[in-house]
Amino acid sequence: MTTPRVLVMEKHGFERNILGRMLRQLGIHDVLQAEDAEQAMIAMQRSGGVDIVLCDLGGKGLDCLELLRYASPIGLVKAVALFSEHQPELRRAVGQMASLSGLQLLGVLDVPLQLGALSRLLKRYRCPPPPLLQALAVTELPSEEEVRRGLAMGEFRGWFQPKRVMRDGRLAGAEALVRWEHPEKGLLLPKDFLAAVLAYDLIDEMFKQLFEQGLNILGILRRQGIALEMAFNLHASQLSSPSLIEHIQRTLQRHGICGSALMFELAENGLLDLHAQVQENLLHMRMLGCGLSIDDFGSGFSSLKLLCQLPFNQIKLDGQFVHNLSEPRNRAMVASTLALARSLDMTLVIEGVSSRQIRDALVAMGCQIGQGFYLARPMSGHDLLQWLHQAAFEAQSVPSD
Predict the structure, then answer these.
(1) How many distinct structural domains can be found in the chain?
(2) Same-domain check for residues 152 and 228
(3) Considering 212, 229, 351, 394, which one is annotated as catalytic?
């Protein structure tokens, strides 16, 4: 039986070396090491991916959860094992999860790690069957020079996916999504480049370009008498200083657009350990009138206390929970999140609405707003304007076929 390839992500070199020696004692010799997510992503790209990522849940910066979010969709990793010094109740909660970022979750180990416990955890790994298609071949991480050139040439473009009221199809907003119109590789999705943009610290520059494009569209719609709430994605790390908030405020003033027309979505797994400056900037955004949404809810480890303390007014439930609503655990997650949103006076958006069956089941459960391919696919800015123009003059309804 082939032993798995393991990547160890740990910021301290001493602990990394100890983990490497422990793995070799267990007969696992194909071991990669990285001190942070940037190094881990590059190492996995160069090696063609790994079977298991072993990382510290309590790491700072672009942590394990953020790494998995980008590595999982492109097949760079198959399973994850965590170790953590967090409080016991959090370890128990995480340990009950079967998956994380769509990956097999082997479990959570106590620190300091014990050889026997590590051995038992690794034995849980089940090598998934090979994919039917190999189209998702691992590609190289774009170079910093390539990303900078793309930004300078305006190749990063906003695409927009509407959100709709599921019962009657009415428009409930739109989310700005970034695409790279690469001159040689064609249209690239975030999974192809976002890790590189983060690694090279160019995320603010990319956001500013996307934000400008989105506000231009809002300006056009305003002149046509069409009101639209537009959502933009942010990483919590972007809020560690007031500079980006100041840029948002200046740009809104220049375009003459109210903050109430905007929603900013932050991934749940980036909200685990917020500095005081980040919390202050979140409050500043709400004071500007902007909405704040917890994105990918259910894939991270937010607490009820955290939800009550932070000024969020929307929850976006991760689409993984609606793909199989016949599963009791998934239905419980949808129902409990809906109840939580109602109790906190927050709106709930359900992601991943990819079929009529899913839409109908969610409506029956009392969910209102959805987003997904069945309701509307992402589209270019030009196509969005045409889509909205048609929606303003025709009775809109969710497709029935």
Answers:
(1) 2
(2) yes
(3) 351
